[in-house]
């Protein structure tokens, strides 16, 4: 995703995750810690604890906007320059503050040539790069939820479903095949999933989830012309892991696994996954 060209002076890679409240969660040998990404002193203290390393950072959804567009009719070498003007009426940030990158889904409906454009705040990213540089950390790669979570799924030629939830965010779905993203979407009405009771899920919410999942599976097979999903993985609040795994397995007849251990947070998983991006074989946290 977003990268900064610089000489790699250290081999050690540290995974991190930027949360909605601007806390950066960093993985270390003790399981990780958080610090305020806007506070220079906090960066200094974090760097002392981490030691010299290359930081790979995953943004949570509140820090970027993903916009699907038809590929602009320009030569490849002019594409990056054309994107800001293509998405400016769709993006929430002013043109001068847009940091853009793009990727393509593994397949697109009706063979349309589409791009997924990711827009983030250049000012926020640039300040973090500066703070990192000032403290012997190299923030040389920034990615997003939809891409970093692919690192947690084993490569499989059959489509796999992942459902994940961040506090105060919609429940999200992605479907992947062979380590590539087929599509993703959000399910509204589940922002408070971490504070809901099992009884609340039973009173209509699970039925709504089942319906949305079935629609997504139908889209996968009918519009994207892909094989049926092979499995479902979950990153959900611990109190709902057993309930959702059991009910989803009963509803769809697919194996369901929880990717988060008891007490493991989505931020910890994302930071761990960020360290894995691009198959680094250096020392990782």
The biggest sheet, with number of strands, parallel, antiparallel or mixed sense and barrel status, is: 6 strands, mixed
| CATH structural architecture of one domain | 2-Layer Sandwich
Q: How do the strands line up in the largest sheet? A: 1-9-5-2-3-4
Average predicted local confidence, pLDDT: 90
Helix fraction? Answer: 25-40%
Strand coverage percent: 25-35%
- Apparent shape: globular
Distance between the termini: 20 Å
The total count of strands amounts to: 14
Give start-end ranges of low-pLDDT stretches.
279-285
SSE string, helix = H, strand = E? EEEEHEEHEEHEHEEEHEHEH
CATH class of one domain: Alpha Beta
CATH topology name of one domain, in short, is: Nucleotidyltransferase, domain 5
Give Rg in angstroms: 19 Å
SS element count, helices:
7
Q: Which class of secondary structure composition applies to the elements?
A: alpha/beta
- Name the CATH superfamily classification of one domain: ATPase, nucleotide binding domain
Organism: Ferrimonas lipolytica
InterPro entries: ATPase_NBD
Protein name: MSHA biogenesis protein MshI
